[in-house]
Amino acid sequence: MYRTKKPLEDLALDLLFEALGEKRYNRSPEDYKRLCALIPPLKKAHFLVNQQLRKHHDEGTFKDTAICDFKAGDRFATYRAYPETISIETIRIALIAMGFRNPKWKSSRDN
Question: Would 31 be classed as within a structural domain?
């Protein structure tokens, strides 16, 4: 089982599917399979995500003013500015956490 996603990972997926001209919510199982097939290799996905992020920064078109890091058990919400770039590892984790990519197996030496 993989860990749950964080707000930055959610943003990365939104930007990726926006770059692909798709929405990722409220789909049939067949549509989700099609979305999985649309996802490019990780390096290309990384480029697309950061390209969309740069576009939103330049145009000032983010849907919110900041990223909210509130999670269950927190007493107060914390906010942070949108990043300038999103790492390839964040995109990989987001794709795995949401079932759009299968995790690679780790060798026994990695534990």
Answer: yes
- Sequence-ordered alpha helix ranges (H) in 1-111: 7-19, 29-38, 42-59, 88-97
Distance CA 55, CA 95 (A): 22
| 110 found inside a domain | no
Residue range(s) defining the domain that contains residue 44: 7-102
The pTM for the full model equals 0.85
User: What is the chain's pLDDT, residue by residue, as a tens digit (111 residues)?
Assistant: 455 578 999 999 999 999 999 988 888 889 989 999 999 999 999 999 999 999 999 999 998 899 998 888 899 999 999 999 999 999 999 999 998 998 877 655 555
Radius of gyration of the chain (CA): 15
